[in-house]
């Protein structure tokens, strides 16, 4: 499981949600949405199809998806991982890492 992978995860509030792996051990993700409005003080980054590495194909994002990169939640087990969206490009992953420096 690589840290720059985008996955679909099970969510208690909906059937599935896009997520980025922030940490592989323990398994932590930041959940994204194409419609949810994040707080004004959230450190958010948006990603779309052009941010995915074409050499590691997956299902892809259904639309541009925004992630609050400071909000990481634990995933209990692999049963909550539903499908592979793709891997972020190196440039997109650097955006995540840079944005996470602004978390408090």
Q: Which consecutive residue ranges, at least 5 long each, have pLDDT under 50?
A: none
Tell me what portion of residues adopts beta-strand conformation.
Answer: 25-35%
Rg: 12 Å
Biggest pleated-sheet summary: 7 strands, antiparallel
Please write the string of helix (H) and strand (E) elements.
EEEEEEEH
Structural class: mainly beta
The dominant shape is globular
Mean pLDDT: 85
**Helicity level, as a percent range?**
10-25%
Number of helices: 1
- The tally of beta strands, per DSSP, is 7
Task: Report the span from N to C terminus.
Answer: 26 Å
Could you please describe the fold and organization of this structure?
- This protein is mainly β.
- 11% of the residues lie in helices and 34% in strands.
- The protein has one helix and seven strands, in the order βββββββα.
- The protein has one helix spanning 90-100; strands at residues 5-9, 17-23, 28-33, 44-47, 65-68, 73-74, 81-87.
- Strands 1, 2, 3, 4, 5, 6 and 7 form a seven-stranded antiparallel beta sheet that branches.
- A hairpin with a 7-residue loop joins strand 1 (5-9) and strand 2 (17-23).
- The longest helix has 11 residues, at 90-100.
- The chain is globular.
